[in-house]
Amino acid sequence: MTATSLLSLESVHTHIGAYHILHGVNLEVRRGEVTMLLGRNGAGKTTTLRTIMGLWHASYGRIVFDGQVLSAPGKALSTPEIAQRGIAYVPESMGIFSDLTVKENLVLAARSARTEDDFDSRRLAWIFELFPALRKFWLYPAGKLSGGQKQMLAVARAIIEPRKLLLIDEPSKGLAPAIIHNLIAALRELKRSETTILLVEQNFAMAQALGDRVAVMDDGQVVHTGPMAELAEDEGLQQRLLGLSLASHQ
């Protein structure tokens, strides 16, 4: 783990039942950057995020976060313990509670808040600046929000308290282009707040707009790492690693 690393995975293997999904993943996420995790469907991207978060346990290898071992042979922190160290996870399913209001979803996500009055008022105001719709629909059941508004709520839940690292799985899936543009702007603002992000994304325009570095997965391994700009400029590399051209997916 280098001095600039916030998170590193070292030869991480993950089994789910009889299936061997991750085959020795080596990955570095640098502090203060957005790292894109790309790859074909089934490459192991979601499994990597879930393994970092402790939802699935690594069967071999080490995961180190901010100088602390999260997972190693004979040691595996629980998901709540990992969250307490400053990591939040936004799954592809978003994980919001549809029958609860926007406010109630955020109260549940804030460990230090039992009611709305317990929120850090400056942080809540900042979240409303990022996602104005959440203020408008503050007392609406979350299940009645649009897809884009639900994604905003999912991210807001993850950041209602300061986090060192956000793990986000396909946030743009199914969203209209205008909503994706707003989401990109919000994630850029998060990055400016010194939040490190590891982002799985199939929308390559979004990946190019946000990514500082990229890791490409194939068959349960990281097969390429480097600057996102370098991958975005090299169509031959895109075809070899992803089987497509980013230019065709703008």
Automatic annotation (TrEMBL):
Name listed for the protein in its UniProt record: ABC transporter ATP-binding protein
Gene Ontology molecular function terms on file: ATP binding; ATP hydrolysis activity; branched-chain amino acid transmembrane transporter activity
PANTHER family the UniProt entry points to: ABC TRANSPORTER ATP-BINDING PROTEIN (PTHR43820:SF2), HIGH-AFFINITY BRANCHED-CHAIN AMINO ACID TRANSPORT ATP-BINDING PROTEIN LIVF (PTHR43820)
Signal peptide: none
GO biological process, one term: L-amino acid transport
InterPro entries from the UniProt entry: AAA+_ATPase, ABC_transporter-like_ATP-bd, ABC_transporter-like_CS, BCAA_Transport_ATP-bd_LivF, P-loop_NTPase
Family named by the database record: Belongs to the ABC transporter superfamily.
Short name of any one Pfam family annotated for the protein: ABC_tran
Organismal lineage: Bacteria, Pseudomonadati, Pseudomonadota, Betaproteobacteria, Burkholderiales
Alphabetic keyword roster: Amino-acid transport, ATP-binding, Cell membrane, Membrane, Nucleotide-binding, Transport
Domain of life: Bacteria
Domain annotation ABC transporter: ranges: 7-244
SUPFAM superfamilies named among the record's database cross-references: P-loop containing nucleoside triphosphate hydrolases
Family matches, as PROSITE patterns: ABC_TRANSPORTER_1 (PS00211), ABC_TRANSPORTER_2 (PS50893)
